Amino acid sequence: MTSLPSLSPARVRRSVVAELRDAIRSNPRADLLSGLVVALALIPEAISFSIIAGVDPKVGLYASFSIAIVIAMTGGRRGMISAATGAMALVVVPLVADYGVGYLFAATVLAGVLQIGLGVLGVGSLMRFIPRTVMTGFVNALAILIFLAQVPHILLTGEADAASMLPMNLAFIAGGLVIIYGLPRITKAVPAPLVAIVALSGLAIGAGIDLPTVGDMGALPDTLPGLALPDVPFTLETLRIILPFSITLALVGLLESLLTAQLLDDMTDTNSNKNMESRGQGIANVITGFLGGMAGCAMIGQSMINHRSGGRTRLSTLASGVFLLILILVLGDLVAAIPMAALVAVMIMVSVGTFDWNSIKPRALKHMPRAETAVMAVTVGIVVLTHNLAYGVGAGVVLSAVFFVRKVVHVVNVTSVVDPDGHERLYAVSGELFFASTNELIHAFDYDAVKVSQVEIDLSEARVWDTSAVVALDTVVAKFAERGIFADVVGFNEHAERLHSRTTDVVSAGH
């Protein structure tokens, strides 16, 4: 990953303002329409996440509005949507249940502060250590979770009149999918998901068709959020309570945001400033906590809706937040009447479009190394089972590291020849010498077969990474010395020479 040049805060602000100005002047239509589609899809999800967290629906809606607008100004990835998310809602369930909503707001503010600090420390640079197979597993797992979240709305689970409404509900979803996939073959002037939502809503309202609606998910707020300090005592005891939750929120939020940013980077063949995104997510959460909202982060589903609807600039992200506020405050009654089937069709499109179908084709599975397939499968399985992205991605990264170390351990190679005079044996060592390969290195020499009084060990084609490798080399020299053979180690590069000179005979295998 190419590192981005560091910019001063003033230059960053000018850059963001310039981007928004250019987007408004050039072709704002696509960004505004995609922002409207995203705003419509955000409403039921924000309400659902509020219910998961055990708070009033307005907490999730205020968070989605606030985060979307702030991240449009402060984020490092253009066209990415951030709002209240299920991953963050799950984290705070015990906090809200045990201590109340005031502690949720305080934890949100502290999580934002931690994210800003991590961004300043350059946590975005750690994205380079996430393997491609883990990214693929992350994407596929999210696609599965997005679809699974729609199943209750497809089958009308928990609805009193489910049996009578189910055929019509399925017909509406099918009709929405026909519009979404069929309209682009005729025209791309208007985002197909928006046409599907408007058409199905008009049909349901006009014909008086009884189907579950957005309003059934929860009441929409009718007032603007106001700035206020969280209603908690400002004591060390409060800090003790919220700190564990804030750390988890900060890490989960950054993980999901940076992975989503990387996905959009790959889709658009552009780069983004991950450290700026980390700081931007922190600023958004700090402000959201003071506005009475819950913590949030990037949303891959909504970001995919935005991308597929034509949103490419910060204007689309800004528009999603502005339209969300307008929809819930001004057009609340109309929005509440939108059938959930219309939004389910949109989310099914997102799920299908998000999944990397090439990764499970028989030809790809046949030629892909089994270790990489295992990493992808483990990542998908853990995320789907736990509904926690951090667990799945963390397990995938650890498993990738284990496979990598196992592979590197076995590439240490030692060859030898006797010089023409027969006085010295020359060993050439190649490979990566570190803690995991030291045993292989020590046993690669044929000590008892050496019939000369001196050997030379050439490390020109090897890399010495740590003190374990130095100890291993000292052990090799000692084993030759025990047999009355002098061993001379040569060919150190500059780093290895410094490490060897500092630590040889200082550290030992036993300490």
Give a quick summary of the entry.
The protein has 511 residues and is of the alpha/beta class. It has 20 helices and six strands.
Could you explain the architecture of this structure?
The protein is built from 20 helices and six strands. The chain starts with 8 loop residues before the first helix and ends in an 8-residue tail after the last helix. Strand 3 and strand 4 form a beta hairpin. Strands 3-4-5-6 form a four-stranded mixed β-sheet. Strands 1-2 form a two-stranded antiparallel sheet. It is of the alpha/beta class and 511 residues long.
What is the topology?
Elements: H1 9-26, H2 28-53, H3 57-74, E1 82-84, H4 86-99, H5 101-120, H6 132-155, H7 162-186, H8 192-207, H9 236-268, H10 274-290, E2 296-298, H11 300-308, H12 314-329, H13 332-336, H14 340-354, H15 362-367, H16 370-386, H17 389-409, E3 413-418, E4 424-433, H18 438-442, E5 454-464, H19 467-482, E6 486-490, H20 494-503
Parallel strand pairs: 4-5, 5-6
Antiparallel strand pairs: 1-2, 3-4
